[in-house]
Amino acid sequence: MSPSKGKNILSLLGKTNSVKKTDSKITKTPKANLSSYNNLNLDLRITRLIESKKFEYIKRNWTSGRSTNWSALGSHGLVYKPNKLNIENFKKGNNKEPGKKLKIASFDLDGTLIKTKSGLRFSRSSDDWTWFNDYVLTKIIELIKSDYLILIFTNQGGVVVKKGAKSVNNFTEKIEKIIDNINENIKKDESLEELPLLVYASTKKSKATKPSEDDVFGSPIELHTSFRKPNTGMWDEFLALIDPLEGGVDFEESFYVGDAAGRPKDFSDSDKNFAKNIGLKFHVPEDYFK
Fold first, then answer.
1. pLDDT (tens digit, 9 = 90+) per residue, 88-103?
2. 104 and 148 in contact (C-beta within 8 Å)?
3. Is 168 exposed, middle or buried, given 0-12, 13-18 or 19+ CB atoms closer than 10 A?
4. The pairing of beta strand 281-283 with beta strand 148-160
5. Contacts of 132 (CB under 8 A, 6+ apart)
6. Distance between CA 230 and CA 250 in Å, rounded?
7. pTM score, two decimals?
């Protein structure tokens, strides 16, 4: 393809093929047309410090099906937070104690809270899941009634944060169905306006070479790496959310449950080391859900 022909194709997409120089390395950076992104606040740029280096990304609303509770963090992460969930009020609990610390019950997703119905290692659709065992749902409801905030930290190496991508749609729909199942089984009281559950997912960096509108939101590989367990990026994102609150985290009462514990049949020890890196007690699902 001739250079002029390539330029014409990019022009039709509303982009130019600019060159950005970083130190001695030259990379091509597609420019994107943001007109189709409604309700996008481009001023919501967040800077993270990783090994003394600053990396910037854009946080934006991510609408998935019927839910507006999702946010996309550049291309390296997805966050589910109920819009009506007031963590400050929840943190005070039934006693309304100012400065009361948050009790965190945190979990991995696949192989810990849920498993596939199909028996395959990875789910093929948003319906291909069932609880890890018969004790999971009961345990979660007990934790909620005991004033715990439920967090899910999950590596989703097959999910790409890109508009229309099947992988991201399947993942967000599956999470919403899991939440629906909990809501259907918990006896709500007046103080529980929203299920106190947040989800943090590390996602895959797209390998697509064709320029698209999503390119402007692409995160550097350093952010993708930092967000993936056993690194602490997802936990750091949660801490940034609760930073203005008094009290912080109750590390004595908080814990993390995951199946990647470095046992002979485990695929890795990423969950065990993640818990160690963020300072939480660690359990494997077979011991916790019984």
1. 766 554 445 666 789 9
2. yes
3. buried
4. unpaired
5. 111, 112, 113, 114, 115, 285, 289
6. 21
7. 0.80
